[in-house]
Amino acid sequence: MSGQAIIRRPGEGKSVKFAGQPMAFLVTANDTRHTSMFEWTIPPGFFTGLHVHRVQEETFYVLEGECDWQVGNERVRATPGTYLFLPPGVPHNIGNASDKIARVLMTVSPPGHERYFEELAETVARGGAADPGTIAELRARYDTDQLSALRS
Fold it and tell me: Computed from CA positions of residues 127, 27, 10, 79, in that sequence, does the dihedral angle turn out positive or negative?
């Protein structure tokens, strides 16, 4: 942790891409002891697959577009202004069933999940997302039990 205030202007800082769309790392474990924050542009047709975290808490806030979330047994059509808090142990699937991009702010506590997103982006770019075993192994290393396949 740097102990310094962080100011990120549009386009500054590190990001990765999923299906050509950016995920900007706003605050990471390098900056804070408590939470990571991301601005995620979710491409049409992208779904994380149903999964659950053992330790991590996540939040999502829809800025633009429409998301399709599964939270436990409930399906949620998430439009701008919709907020979701996920404590550990709640199965969920975050996705975009529309034909337009969706943008969300996402937090993950404790911080460090940016390392998962970096590895996932590399895996997807190599075509490894098609192998459920590869994704399950990656997720298991980052506090995630995969319950259904990633779809990009």
Answer: positive
18 vs 79 pLDDT, higher one: 79
Question: In 3D, which of 29, 43, 37 has the Cα closest to residue 150?
Answer: 43
Q: Report the predicted TM-score, pTM, of the whole model to 2 decimal places.
A: 0.90
One-letter amino acid at 16 equals V
How confident is the model over 86-102, as a mean pLDDT? 95
Enter the DSSP assignment of 128.
G
Nearest alpha carbon to residue 39 among 23, 18, 20 = 23
- For the segment 84-104, the average pLDDT, to the nearest whole number, is 96
Q: Is the CB of residue 150 less than 8 Å from the CB of residue 48?
A: yes
Q: Residue 120 in 3-state DSSP? A: helix
pLDDT tens track for 127-142: 766 677 887 888 889 9
Please state, in angstroms and rounded to a whole number, the distance separating the CA atoms of residues 117 and 150: 13
- Output phi, psi for 135, to 5 deg: -65, -40
